[in-house]
Amino acid sequence: MSKLGKFFKGGGSSKSRAAPSPQEALARLRETEEMLSKKQEYLENRIQREVALAKKHGTQNKRAALQALKRKKRFEKQLTQIDGTLSTIEFQREALENSHTNTEVLRNMGFAAKAMKAVHENMDLDKIDDLMQEITEQQDIAQEISEAFSQRVGFGDDFDEDELMAELEELEQEELNKKMTNIRLPNVPSSSLPTQPARMPGRMSGTSSTAHRSRAASSKRAEEDDDIKQLAAWAT
After folding, report:
1. Would 15 be classed as within a structural domain?
2. What GO terms describe the biological role, i.e. biological process, of this protein (predicted)?
3. Cα–Cα distance for residue pair 57/23, rounded to 1 Å
4. Which of 16, 76, 144, 174 is deepest in the core (most CB within 10 A)?
5. Helix and strand tally (H, E) in the chain?
């Protein structure tokens, strides 16, 4: 068995040591990533230095130039290994973060399920059905009451409309008669009528008499028209 296998086997056989929390494991992984990133930066700088040294010696000092290139190759190999290790650690960190998130989600969902169960324990389905039925009945009663209030209420609407119209016309006629009684007719003039001129004999006498009668009839019609206008003004 390799030393690495013995190390992991020995570390896993200890039951007294508790498993680390996800937060602690994530912190360790981030520290490792930071350390490897610094080592990666150091190797990149060493590679550049070895390349510059190989160029400096060139063919004049082949042995020093080749040694510089060999060191550059070793550094590049280590850099490649670090790149792979960083990829593995990044994958493990993301998996651990997802596992931690899923664990928290599952824990919270379980907590909510317990709370919901505790709430439902105090509920009786039969009581809920009875309550909903009672609510429905009360809503129906409220609807009937609203409809009853909205209907037109009639008190003594069974009268004969023809009788009412006849009574109304009678009252209007009585009121009209009272107003007609209170109308004051124009006063009769107190002055005596002018004396009739002497009739002329013959044709002139007949003509004057006819003209007088025409004027008298016109005056009478004028008085009647005035009376009618006064009556119409009162009626309106």
Report:
1. no
2. late endosome to vacuole transport via multivesicular body sorting pathway; protein transport; vesicle budding from membrane
3. 51
4. 76
5. 6, 0
